[in-house]
Amino acid sequence: IASQLRSNTPPLWVASFEKLLVLTVATKETDGFKRFMRSAQHFNYTVKVLGRGEKWNGGDYMTAPGGGQKVRLLKSALADIKEKDKIILFIDSYDVVFSSGPKELLKKFQQAKHKVVFSAETLIWPDRHLEDKHPHVREGKRFLGAGGFIGYVPNLKEMVSDWSGEDDDSDQLFYTKVYINPAKRKSINITLDSKCRLFQNLHGALDEVVLKFEDGRVRARNVLYDTLPVIVHGNGPTKLQINYLGNYIPNVWTFETGCTVCSEDLRSFSTLKSEFPVVVIGIFIQQPTPFVSAFFERLVNLKYPKKRLNLFIYNQEPHHDKHIRSFLESHEADYKVVKLIGPDEGVDVITSRNIGFDMCRDDIDCEYFFSVDVEVVLKNEDTLKILTELNKPFVAPMMTKPGRLWTNFWGALSADGYYARSEDYVDIVQARRVGIWNVPYVSQVYLLRADVLRSELKDSDLFNSATLDPDMAFCSRVRDQVGGNREVEFGVFMFVTNMHSFGRVLNTENYQTNHLHNDLCCFKYIMANVASHSLLLIPCPDVYWFPIFTERTCTHLVEEMEHFGQWSGGGNTDTRIQGGYENVPTIDIHMNQVNFEKEWQKFLLDYIAPVTEKMFPGYFTRALFDLAFVVRYRPDEQPSLRPHHDASTFTINIALNQVGIDYQGGGCRFIRYNCSIRAPRKGWALMHPGRLTHYHEGLPTTSGTRYIAVSFVDP
């Protein structure tokens, strides 16, 4: 360097930008190739692609050595290059990203003081018997990696001059034999990038590599050698790891800018001259699920032209036939095509999903398949439009389950192919990192492009596996694309986006179908919004009044109790309670009589306990109720309730119907404060202390029928 400065000759990395050419082989433009090219363009590399449109005959790398086709293509390309001072970077593309630019690459190449520099690996492959023939290195990796090397044209020509192998012969073995031959190594002037200054191969080195965020940049850092490699290669079985790193490198997502590529390649509907793309929506009902009617209501409300939508509905549950019939009676004519497979047709779950895909594959007009399981709550009416505009082969909206660190995607996989938590998973779920993320697994809702179904995913059965669940088997096939073609060696990228709030996924565990209104078991999903307590009123001292139930919930709870019909007689003798005697009896039905006690307990714990802790500082409750019941007041039955104290620390009293419409009169009077609430609002709760201070009475119902839900709560 000093001699160059003395002679006013610029260093190699300054003078040779135009002399650097990147060569890569790509017979097909896969998602991985597009990622590679994006990173190359980010740093202004000049790239020439070899083998475009050519059939790949070089093996699949995962089951046996291969890659000889790459050597043939390189040898042919080098023959056409006459400049002796030309520098060639020959690199894989489908599983490679650039982490820095040509200046740094050339600088590190010159510092290596050799004419050809290969990437290095910890593991020897494909012939372990050649281990002893490799030169020892003072520090770093000892074995050659054929996935990336840089050198001058004359030296590279000499290196490949003896190639006469077949396309499916091993390029790795060919270059290894050149390297371990002392005479050839010296003549060609080859060395290895042992400390990963230029090339980082991930296979055998996953623990060495971390993301480095600094000054608005993201790149990989090798912590073992404290180096910053220019090129990162997900060689061998490390495709998921390069996908993870590719979510950030190079500057795809940074803390300063957020997502920098999320607005690229969008399919904008605002400038769409033709009609919206035709989408087949596949709806899958595999188990009893709450709120199926609401699911179809949200489907109708999607902001997408219905005449551009075809529906495929698979229902395995007879319980839900009525919900589907109701939907179709009102809306079937709105859609272009509707296909229904019911529980009587004997079609299993796996077959149904394959049939749904075929409905899209076989329709020449179909451009997308939108798969939605019925437990998905699509709150965002623009979901389908947003996903289509992203213009990805496979993309899913991120869905969560309230109160749980659960989503419909996995950030990583364990060694046996099951769930593992990626380093960024929590930040993505909690929206501290927002963008579009390449992930190894999604389920329950996703948009899949039809041309992918007709090509990469044309297999007629994508869900069957002897060892994996259907959803995992499907994702494995999408990711891995086992089929012998290198261009689809690691398949279609599966993206999940958390750029918008899309909805949630219902918990279907323990859902029963033996009630009139089965959805009442899921009280936690049908509350009015009380999170902010902005509507909390104080009509009387230490009496709090706030909305808690939707009107539909109230109506269904009343109908459920009347359907059950076993109202108490209103006498003092009551075998349902401990001791068998009720001092202040009402005509009522207890929650445990209709098997709602567990759900009611959870409702109190999740929604009422936070209010009590806010309103009564220092009081903490586990919301353990002694009694929970629905009371019925009628003028000719039991119009009122005499003054009394409740046998509780505090009481919750929820109005289940509307004064002035369903009944007249009614209300509650707190005698000590001479304070009455005479117009209870449907779905609103009164919360007040039970013992000692709040002596109260139920005011007479003069006409109609009044219903309230009462809970006696103790810590």
Describe the structure.
Residues 624-715 form the Fe2OG dioxygenase domain. InterPro entries: Collagen_mod_GT25 (IPR050757), GT_PLOD (IPR057589), IPNS-like_FE2OG_OXY (IPR044861), Nucleotide-diphossugar_trans (IPR029044), Oxoglu/Fe-dep_dioxygenase_dom (IPR005123), Pro_4_hyd_alph (IPR006620), Procol_lys_dOase (IPR001006). Its EC number is 1.14.11.4. With 715 residues, the chain is an alpha+beta fold. It has 18 helices and 40 strands. It has an eight-stranded mixed beta sheet with strand order 16-15-14-17-25-19-26-23, sandwiched between helices. Strands 28-29-37-33-40-31-30 form a seven-stranded antiparallel beta sheet, covered by helices on one side. A hairpin with a 2-residue loop joins strand 28 and strand 29 (543-547). Helix 4 packs across helix 6 and helix 10 packs parallel to helix 11 (321-331). The longest helix is centred in the C-terminal third of the chain and has 19 residues, at 597-615. The protein is elongated and about 110 Å long. The protein starts with a helix and ends with a strand.
Concise summary:
The protein is of the alpha+beta class and 715 residues long. The chain contains 18 helices and 40 strands. The chain has an 8-stranded mixed β-sheet, sandwiched between helices.
Based on the model shown, name its key terms:
715 residues, eight-stranded mixed β-sheet, seven-stranded antiparallel β-sheet, 24% helix, 25% strand
Give the secondary structure arrangement, pairings included.
Blueprint: H1 2-6, H2 12-15, E1 20-25, H3 31-42, E2 47-50, H4 68-79, E3 87-91, E4 96-98, H5 102-111, E5 116-121, E6 143-152, H6 153-160, H7 171-180, H8 182-188, E7 190-193, E8 199-201, E9 209-214, E10 217-222, E11 231-233, H9 239-246, E12 253-254, E13 258-259, E14 278-285, H10 292-300, E15 309-315, H11 321-331, E16 337-341, H12 349-361, E17 366-373, E18 376-378, H13 383-390, E19 394-397, E20 409-410, E21 412-413, E22 419-420, H14 425-429, E23 436-439, E24 441-442, E25 445-449, H15 450-454, H16 470-480, E26 494-497, E27 503-505, E28 537-540, E29 543-547, H17 551-564, E30 588-590, H18 597-615, E31 624-633, E32 641-644, E33 650-655, E34 663-665, E35 668-670, E36 675-677, E37 684-689, E38 696-698, E39 701-704, E40 706-714
